[in-house]
Backbone:
């Protein structure tokens, strides 16, 4: 594996937290009213938007991008605040057994990919 050219902390300007509640298992999708994004395809933000068409968890985004989970949380949080992404609710007390099983499966796949 080729080492990254950019240190992870430079992607977040050294920040380690986000302004939004963003659990690592939370599914993230593109906001219906997202502003036009004019970033080049290789830009990390553009890559996140492409990934979010499938509503991955924050952990899955980190794995696909090859960045630490904390970095992915900050980048995703920035895109949520800017109106590009929407965080979907994780399961509540009324969730069915199938919904819980699906969440566990998705979470395990994301963690394995890390």
Residues:
């Amino acid at each position: 594996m080729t080492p990254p050219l950019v240190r992870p902390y430079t992607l977040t300007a050294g920040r380690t937290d986000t302004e939004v509640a963003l659990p690592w298992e939370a599914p993230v999708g593109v906001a219906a009213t997202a502003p036009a994004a004019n970033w080049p395809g290789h830009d990390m933000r553009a890559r996140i938007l492409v990934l979010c068409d499938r509503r991955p968890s924050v952990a899955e985004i980190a794995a696909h991008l090859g960045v630490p989970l904390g970095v992915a949380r900050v980048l995703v949080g920035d895109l949520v605040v800017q109106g590009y992404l929407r965080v979907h609710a994780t399961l509540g007390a009324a969730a069915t057994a199938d919904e819980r099983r699906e969440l566990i499966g998705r979470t395990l796949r994301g963690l394995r990919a890390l």
User: Anything to note?
Assistant: The chain has five helices and two strands. Residues 8-113 form one domain. The mean pLDDT is 82. The chain has one domain: 8-113.
